[in-house]
Design goal:
The chain is of the alpha+beta class and about 290 residues long. The protein is about 55% helix and about 25% strand. Helix 1 runs antiparallel to helix 2 (about 75-95), helix 1 packs parallel to helix 3 and helix 2 packs antiparallel against helix 3 (about 100-165).
Length: about 290
Amino acid sequence: MENQDNHSKLKAIIGILAVLLIGSLIYIFKLTSDAKTLQTTVTTVKSEKESVLKDLADLKTTYDAAIAENTSMSDELIAERDKVVKLMAQLKASKGDNASLLKYRTQYKALEQKMQNLMQEVEVLKKQNQTLTTNLDSTKVVLEDNKKYNQVLVGQNEDLAKKVELGSKLSITNLKTASYKVRSSGKQIVTDKASRTDMLKINFTVAENKIAKSGDKTYYVQVIDSKNNVLGDKATISFGETSLTYSFTTTVKYENKTVEVSEQLPGKDFAKGTYFVNVFDKGELVSKSSFSLR
């Protein structure tokens, strides 16, 4: 009887121990399962955090490249990039729980959408700038061509003006000087002796020129004897920095037709030797000749 009671007690103890063992096994299994779940959760959270950080870093790189192009939107792009940098700093400092990661992922999506919109605007601006640059280049080419053409025209006009100026100048031809003895009766007798000469007659022709300016034309005639003396009036006139001592002046009424000019220069005690006759149009020598008295 006693043995039977002991046997029953032993069975009861074994049953209790079995229950405790089963309970312990279930508890250990649960702990192990929870630990695996926690580790998986931590790994997932860490992976998600790194993923968001990488996405934000890519976003920053895109902004850096766009800012480097120095468009008119640079200020706005810099402001958005700074938001990305700030969010990356906050994410790195966070504990990285699911709730905060969801918040950062949401903020990233908003920044990404903003970036896409800005990039579209940048592309539009780049195309507009390319078109403008092309138009400016074309305009520059046209302006350069026009400039070269105008320079050619200016050169041609200057050449033409010079040719017209040269062509409009009057030519003095047939400059001749004769010496005369004038009798009391007024009769003029040609002589080449200095002792008999008391008058010089100077003749020249103003040639016809259709493009010259018509009107009164004054010429300055200079006669220099063999002793280098200027005969006649010996008057001096200045033309800019040039001065001229002349014997007499003659004024011609010019009407674009040939004009014959004849002037007399009276004198006495003419020296023997060679004489020089110069005709000036203001300060410019336009004709010259010489003659001799013996």
